[in-house]
Amino acid sequence: MSFSRSLAIGLVAATVASAASAANLVTNGSFETPTPGNGLAGWTYTGGENPPSGTPLYPPVSIFYGAAQAYPQGAFGEAIPANNAPTNSPDAVGARAAYFVSDFANNPNQTLTQSVFLNAGIYQIGFSAYAPANGFANAGDATFEGIVASLSLASYNVSAGLVQTWQTFAGAANIAVAGIYDVEFTFYTNAFPSKDIVIDQVYIIAGNPPIGVPEPLSLALLGSGLLGLAAARRLRRRA
Ligand SMILES: [Ca+2]
Ligand SMILES: [Ca+2]
Questions:
Q1: What is the CA radius of gyration of the chain?
Q2: CATH node for 25-213
Q3: Closest to 143 measured CA to CA, from 185, 113, 200
């Protein structure tokens, strides 16, 4: 094998690996795409609410960061900071996040869902969540679950979680059989007023890189490139 051919093979392998891990297989995982759905493009809202007669409905919406605005643009006047928890989401945090706020999300539970086709392989899955202070102070609890690639990454009462702190939930999904897998966020409340939750940067990426390592793609590319060069040097010495 010639020097140039072995080097080319190394670089091609590196390019394929970086292209695969760069793509988020979740559509609009950062809740930025404005239409259709006003920030929730690609997501399906299911479930409903069972409020007392005359009470407005509050389906999940994509609110704006840093906006002390009323629903549906903001979190009832509380400015929510952009997600700052370490994440491997390929998507920028952007200007918006999804907000569950209904006090009667039980007819049935409110969900935001989408289906994703995955080939067999190892994927990293994750999302970030935040509990606003004004909702956290509410007496009624909320139950929240985040499922990505049909695996439950988090399931808890909001009262048992952190307040005003972004947290990333992530894990590895070992997909044995190619097919359709679910991304589903479920929110349940049944008291006035109840706690709320904000989510952002939902992702599924190929591979399972460490979380919070700066520029993992560049390092992976560099590493693969160096391996290619080393192989090429060995071959050249042999020749
Ligand atoms: Ca976002
Ligand atoms: Ca609420």
A1: 21
A2: 2.60.120.200
A3: 185
Residues within 5 A (CB) of ion ligand 1: 30-31, 94, 96, 200
- Domain range summary for the chain, segments of one domain joined by +: 25-213
Q: What are phi and psi of 4, to 5 degrees?
A: -65, -35
Chain-centre distance of CA 144, in angstroms? 15
Query: Contact 220/14 with Cβ under 8 angstroms?
Result: yes
Taking the CA atoms of 51, 57, 58 and 59 in sequence, report the sign of the dihedral they define. positive
- Residue-wise pLDDT for 207-224, tens only, equals 999 987 654 444 444 444
Measured distance CA(18)–CA(224) in Å, rounded: 10
Distance 196 CA to ligand 1 centre (A): 17
What spacing in Å lies between the alpha carbon of 20 and ligand 1's midpoint? 22
Does pTM top 0.70 for this prediction? yes
* Cα–Cα distance measured from residue 48 to residue 127, given in angstroms and rounded to the nearest whole number: 23
Give the position of tokens 């590895």.
172
- Convert the pLDDT of each residue in 9-25 to its tens digit: 433 333 334 444 469 99
